[in-house]
């Protein structure tokens, strides 16, 4: 074993050791699908692949900055074995987490880590604890009818997007590595009876915590209130240092932070046109980070009705509904906390929840003001934003590139209303008859920015408006190559999305800042993963 891996392993606090004293583990040790009661975790070992395993990609930053590993270790056999679930760190007992949740608005009862294994908690040189989880690593007691596997296409998407979100400044789980095997995994990708052979892949994911709203819901649902209290106190102690764990109001304090941070997270998603796709309560983190990437999508043409997941028939998780769903999920969180609250605390928590829409709206406006380069507060700012979004919607303009090009164009070019061809998305918006009216309002408003210049404005706006986001067609193009063991585009995207605000020549050549190619117009993404 290489020295560096040995170092990582020495510093891994085995999940069982860390949690055991505090968070109960299922006494049943056999790995079969069942209803699990009165515990937070079940012991479950990954099922290694039978065939050869290839390394598709690694995140240099996660390895170096989070796991204190040199990138060169990723070339070693020990590394591949560790990240594919073949080698279990000596003494470690991997765990699968028991949780429940509301899926598409309906209580789904027990869900849990059906294809994920917590393999360790790493305390890094900065003293941060990171929970390391394999996804796609085999069946657990929570697998229900699933096979415990994840296919390459969905793993490439999760790997690329979670890292991309981090570099967009959006709280998220991270991805350390992605491996693919030749093990057969069968999927009916579009639920139309067309079952095809795909390959099993595993992502090594890292997050400060993987606990979700559903982690608490399952305990409340089964009346396991002592356990609910234990888990809440653990989460507060570990992750909410501003809350005193002895304070009688601590659960209300926790709720207040989660409400506020969830509002912030969803506003951030909206600011980059990100639709999560499956905003079930089991996919909403208690730390308000983005987790469980599935049929997500970055909106292309601005459209509040955009739904990334073709399996979402009722359009419940359309992009423009995410803030409302945040409210729904927080309400479910409150229901899970309620058995531990006295009447006064219940009332307080209900009031906090009532404040969510204003919190969300305030954050949304702040982010969109920054996207427009507006400084300070002026009457009419909200209208200026809404007006611009309206023009984008009517002209079906590309959300990401319109904002980006508005960041790149000069005020004098705007004033002339003659938008150069290179600003293709903005040019689309300019076809609307009210565009001149919007431009004159906008230019007038920019004049009221104190101590500003046009080059300062453009500089500021190019740090608020990314040039590259992981549009479906880009992920699809990388996936198609990866299916043929050509991982070059996965790696190119990874590189480009590490600096989404900087122009990158290979990205330009690949068309990542160009209109969506015609072959990709009808791309679909389903829940199948
Ligand atoms: P998701 O919406 O993908 O986050 O997953 C919802 C639930 O389904 C979770 O409990 C997952 O662990 C479980 N699940 C999804 N796919 C599989 C699979 N292939 N095998 C076992 N469980 C799965
Ligand atoms: Mg999930």
UniProtKB/TrEMBL annotation:
InterPro entries: SelO (IPR003846). GO terms for molecular function: ATP binding; metal ion binding; nucleotidyltransferase activity. Keywords: ATP-binding, Magnesium, Metal-binding, Nucleotide-binding, Nucleotidyltransferase, Signal, Transferase. Residues 1-30 form the signal peptide. It holds the Pfam family SelO. It comes from the Eukaryota. Its cofactor is Mg(2+). PANTHER family: SELENOPROTEIN O. Belongs to the SELO family. This is Selenoprotein O. The lineage of its organism: Eukaryota, Metazoa, Chordata, Craniata, Vertebrata. The gene is LOC105878114.
